[in-house]
């Protein structure tokens, strides 16, 4: 059996200009070199209009590069005859799940993409059963999607993508319109699939605590990749984040203030547990 390459998505000197913007000095995306490994969870952060959503659409072959290239499973996204295959490999979850819910019941919605692939009915039922169980949706299969909560709608949108058996999901601020409980439901389901099934995730978010869940955080500004690394490092580059109008996690921001007041606290604080442990052992510098 032939082994699959470790790199799932690779952008090489990637650039994109939207039609009609040829005379604008700063392209939407410019000079991006970035790879995503199988099973990796990557968060993309940056100011509004920095090119994050454009980058996802380039990964999904919804847009074709102006310069450079994107390879998905080793296939160029400019190969038109391969674009359906690419979109099955890298499914995209949009900010508003209502834009992806098209059927009259949850069951039909999850099956929609599979029916377009003309899969046998037995295979469709098998996949719907599997993903609805994995995402806690079995009791909702006969319900109308528009009657569900925000978190449930988000999980249905994810289920419809997962039924296609992708290698990666691309998420464009999927929790921006959700309350706290719904956000946790959606992100918990995605993180479980990432850890237990090796599903790669590329997640655009404005929430620092969401970015901190990733294996790697990538900062995009004015279409360029300007920094990347582990969350413990990137989310504590507070001077850079603040310059871009971004924030670290609440514990990392508080830790920085406490250090200014003389507390001996490590630089790489991400969450409340780490901050509390550091405070319990820290000494006040006089």
Short description:
With about 290 residues, the protein is an alpha/beta fold. Helix content is about 35%, strand content about 20%.
- Please indicate the count of domains: 1
Query: Which percent bin holds the helix content?
Result: 25-40%
**How can the largest sheet be summarized?**
6 strands, mixed
Annotated CATH architecture: 3-Layer(aba) Sandwich
Main β-sheet, spatial strand arrangement: 6-7-8-3-9-10
CATH topology: Rossmann fold
Report the average pLDDT across residues: 90
Number of strands: 10
Stretches where pLDDT falls below 50 for ≥5 residues? none
Order of helices and strands: EEEHEEHEHHHEHEHEEHHHH
Structural class: alpha/beta
The CATH superfamily name is P-loop containing nucleotide triphosphate hydrolases
Instruction: Give the CA-CA distance, first to last residue.
Output: 64 Å
Number of helices: 11
Percent range for β-strand residues: 15-25%
Shape: globular
Please compute the radius of gyration using only Cα atoms.
20 Å
Any overview of this molecule?
The chain has 286 residues and is α/β, with parallel strands linked by helices. It has a single domain, classed as 3-Layer(aba) Sandwich (Rossmann fold). The protein has eleven helices and ten strands. The strands form two sheets. The chain has a six-stranded mixed β-sheet, sandwiched between helices. Strands 2-1-4-5 form a four-stranded antiparallel β-sheet, covered by helices on one side. β9 and β10 form a beta hairpin. α3 packs across α4 and α3 (106-116) runs parallel beside α5 (150-162). The radius of gyration is 20 Å and the shape is globular.
């Amino acid at each position: 059996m032939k082994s699959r390459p470790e790199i799932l998505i690779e952008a090489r000197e990637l650039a994109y200009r939207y039609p009609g913007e040829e005379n604008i000095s700063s392209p939407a995306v410019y000079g991006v070199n970035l790879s995503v490994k199988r099973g990796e969870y990557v968060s993309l952060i940056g100011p509004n209009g920095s090119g994050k959503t454009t980058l996802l659409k380039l990964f999904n072959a919804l847009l074709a590069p102006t310069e450079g290239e994107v390879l998905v499973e080793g296939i160029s996204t400019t190969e038109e005859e391969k674009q359906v295959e690419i979109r099955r490999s890298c499914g995209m979850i949009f900010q508003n799940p209502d834009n992806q819910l098209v059927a009259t019941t949850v069951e039909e919605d999850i099956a929609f993409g599979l029916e377009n692939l003309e899969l046998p009915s037995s295979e469709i039922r098998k996949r719907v059963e599997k993903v609805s169980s994995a995402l806690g949706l079995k009791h909702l299969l006969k319900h109308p999607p528009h009657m569900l909560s925000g978190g449930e709608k988000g999980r249905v949108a994810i289920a419809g993508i997962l039924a296609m058996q992708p290698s990666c999901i691309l998420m464009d601020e999927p929790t921006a319109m959700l309350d706290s409980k719904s956000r946790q439901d959606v992100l918990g389901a995605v993180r479980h699939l990432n850890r237990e099934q090796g599903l790669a995730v590329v997640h655009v978010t404005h929430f620092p605590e969401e970015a901190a869940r990733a294996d790697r955080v990538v900062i995009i500004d004015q279409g360029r990749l300007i920094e990347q690394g582990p969350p413990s490092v990137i989310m504590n580059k507070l001077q850079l984040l603040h310059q871009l109008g971004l924030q670290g996690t609440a514990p990392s921001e508080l830790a920085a203030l406490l250090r200014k007041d003389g507390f001996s606290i490590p630089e790489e604080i991400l969450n409340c547990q780490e901050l509390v442990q550091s405070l319990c052992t820290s000494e006040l510098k006089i």
